[in-house]
Design a protein that fits this description.
about 120 residues, alpha/beta, Oxidized Rhodanese, domain 1, about 30% helix
């Protein structure tokens, strides 16, 4: 499990929270991150990030062992509230490599991937 004040990417420290544009920039630059989606299964049927690790918020405590400790984990939900709660909880548990996606997958769909479904 990674610890520390914040996840690092190269020589730069990622903040606790990033927006959709910053996540897109990370992907475009080839930075390896893992998307942790804490939404419910019915929400994933509407839209999702390909290859995301899907763990509903209520199941997160039982499934901590599935989180990578060596790369930044970007936590997402619909609008960023559940994911913020999850990211705060994970950081308190010692996961220093966790970043919240402000605005959630809704912001991603509206700002970056306009072909993605919204709800």
């Amino acid at each position: 499990m990674a610890t520390g004040s914040g996840p690092s990417e190269g020589n730069r420290t990622l903040p606790f929270e990033i927006g959709a544009a910053t996540l897109a920039e990370l992907g475009d630059s080839g930075v390896e991150v893992r998307i942790l989606d804490v939404r419910e299964p019915w929400e994933l049927e509407i839209c999702r990030f390909p290859g995301s690790l899907d763990i509903p918020l209520g199941m997160l405590p039982a499934r901590l062992g599935e989180l990578p400790g060596d790369i930044p984990v970007i936590v997402v939900c619909h609008h960023g509230m559940r994911s913020r709660q999850a990211a705060m909880w994970l950081r308190a548990k010692g996961f220093g490599n966790v970043v919240n996606l402000d605005g959630g997958i809704d912001a991603w769909a509206r700002e970056i991937d306009k072909s993605m479904g919204t709800y």
